Every structure is written in structure tokens, then in C-alpha cells.
Amino acid sequence: MGEKKISLTAKLINGGVAGLVGVTCVFPIDLAKTRLQNQQGRVIYTGMLDCLVKTVRTEGFFGMYRGAAVNLTLVTPEKAIKLAANDFFRQMLSRDGKELTLLKEMLAGCGAGTCQVVVTSPMEMLKIQLQDAGRLAVQQKAITTDGPASSHPPQSRAFTFGSTSVPKRPSALLITRDLIRTQGIAGVYKGLGATLVRDVPFSVIYFPLFANLNKLGQTSPDQKAPFLHSFMAGCLAGSVAAVAVTPLDVLKTRIQTLKKGHGEDTYNGIADCARKIWRNEGPSAFMKGAVCRALVIAPLFGIAQGVYFIGIGEYILRFFQ
Asked: Per-residue pLDDT tens for 124-153?
């Protein structure tokens, strides 16, 4: 038999609700991850807690949520596509009624990871610019204080994309408008290849691992696993997949960061980025933000799978019927 079929609409609602709840809970840790991964040369943050404390001190509590609006807007379609696509591919690959082999589970995850980048790539690119703005401002202030005086105070420095500048605290809409005007739609999708290189392996690892961990909590193929078991399976699978692809996430973050700090490297593609990080910062730099990623992805996917298996989407649909 197998699990009860769930409508596509319910899957999309489940993915959207899970994404909104998850992002709200873990976004400050994600901001710390971005700032730690982009840090080169001058050390501003010694770790996740130091980054969050300094962010609150210099930017206020809501400084930890810079860029959250982009994620909260786009995470619903992003998570909905990821979860629904994986479920769709699993159903397509199991039409013979047999359990999926590990290879087919990995293929389903690969398909889900490929589909989601349509939303993930521009979402991540815009989010990174807003998250990293505070780090750049602190770095510039330190340079102004310790080094030669700058002709522009940190508060008035501009972010430049293409041939135009926008204020130091730009919105996602301003960045998008400037990129499209100067570079076309390709500007918004900067780092698409790096996003694929990260998200496809992540999904290939995550979905089969979660499916097999979740099966351990099912008393029969027709029964859902308990909520707590699905939550813990999502957390564990998410942590393993997140840490495994951290080097690829570092590459993606560096490539998608448009505004570089003083003396920081610029990159011309994935290979060039990997070569410069290895040469200038050593192999340990590829694991920057690994703990943060595990702390972000674990609850994010735990919540996602918990909501998905509780079936909030089905309850909502029944309410309106």
C-alpha cells in the first residue's frame, strides 16, 4: 500500500507554513553564518555568539533580522517547491508499488534540489547582501578608526551594483531593480551554478536519509510516524546534510556577495573561488559557519517535516471545504 496520498495544494500549504515558522525561529543564526563565511583578513567576529552579541550592540535587536523579509516572502514557494517536488518524484519513481531503492531516493532528492533553485538562487543572493551590510559597516568603521581617514563616513557609504549606487541600507527591491537595470535578469540569478552545486547534493543526502530515519518511527507502512519522531528525523538528516555541503555553501556565499570589504577577494566562478580560498585562507576556511548551518538547518527541516507529516495543509483545506 504505502502512505496516504496528499493533494498537491496541501503539500504546498505544508511547505509554506513550515518555511515561515522555521525561518522566523532560526534567521539570526543564519545571519551569523553569512557574516562568518564572508569574513576575510581582519577578524571582526570570533564566532556565532560573538557575532550575534556585536550585531545587537551595533544594530539593535532587529539587526539580527536584516534580510528576513526576503526570506519570509520567498521561503513559502521555495520550501513548497522543495517538499512537493521531492514527493512528486518519489511517487513517479515508485509507480510499480515497490519501495524506492536508495538510488531512486537520491534521484528524487536531486530532482527536488534542481527545481527549488528557481526561487532559492535569487532569494539567497538578495538575503546575503542585506545580511552582510552590517559586517561591512563595522569593518569600514574599524578601518577609518585604525587607518587613514576615509573620505566617506561609514554611515554614508554606498553599495554599488553595476554603474549605480544605492544607500548603505538598501532594500531587496532597490537591489533587484538596480541589478535588472544594469545586468538584466542574469544579475538577480548571480551564483545560480553555485546554488545548484550546493542544493542538489544537499537534497540527495537529506531526503533519502530523512525517509529512512522516518521509517523507523512507523508501526506500519500505512501509518505516519509520530510528530516528535518526524521532527527529530528532520533535524538529524538536516544537520548531516548541512555540514556535508558546508564547503559548497561557503563558495556560494562568497560568489553571491556583491559588495566586498576592504582587501577582500573577488571571484570569477566556482573554481576561481575555491582556488583563492584554499591559497589565501587554507582548507579550514571551507568549513566556516558549519556549526551555524547545522543549527539553522536542523530545526528548519525538523519543523518542515513535522508540519508536513502533521498535515496542517489538509486541516486548512478541510476547514474551507
From this structure: 999 999 999 888 888 888 777 665 444 343
Q: What is the pTM of this model?
A: 0.82
Three-state DSSP class for residue 151: coil
**Look-up: residue for cell 533580522?**
65
Contact (Cβ atoms closer than 8 angstroms) between residue 246 and residue 201: no
Here the cell at position 14 is: 505544508
The residues, ordered by sequence, that sit 6+ positions from 254 with a Cβ below 8 Å of its Cβ are 37, 38, 265, 267, 273, 277
Return all residues near 229 (Cβ < 8 A) that are at least 6 apart. Answer: 214, 216, 217
What cell numbers appear for 169 in the block?
541600507
Number of CB atoms found within 10 A of residue 134's CB? 22
What does the pLDDT look like over 269-304, one tens digit per residue? 999 999 999 999 999 999 999 999 999 988 887 887
- Pairwise CA distance, residues 308 & 302, whole Å: 10
Q: Which three cell numbers stand for residue 133?
A: 551590510
